[in-house]
Amino acid sequence: MSAKDTVEQLIKALEAQEWQAAAALLSDDFAEGGTLPGEAQTREDYLAAQKAIATAFPDWHYTVSDVQEQGNTVTLRLAGSGTHTGELVPPIPAMPAIPATGKAVTLPADHAEFMLKDGQITALRLDTPLGGGLDGILEQIGAVPLMEMGGQ
pTM (2 decimals)? Predict the structure, then answer.
């Protein structure tokens, strides 16, 4: 299976909320940069954040574009969207849960870079534009942005 195929399988598993399948595609030492400032997220942290999004936005969908594969690296643009029909429990200590608002959210596309080794994803780096990521979600559902809480 190509690196591109592995990344596509991860995105499909996340959308389908198939957490064991997603975990199997991530290496034990997986690290994500770009989710929270100054912190590398482990595989468990990454999956917990994805589960929180899936709980709050059961119809969460990723739109993928500009896919490029070069050796063991896959770059692409990744935009998420969904409707806030469940409780959002942000992956930030002391931040309260946010009840469902029914609001539709469409995030601008992140530039994502996936690194692979031995058929598993070892790292994910995200370049999130203004209005994207968790701040973008919070802004679009009318919650306090992270930057006001000292998060960014």
Answer: 0.88
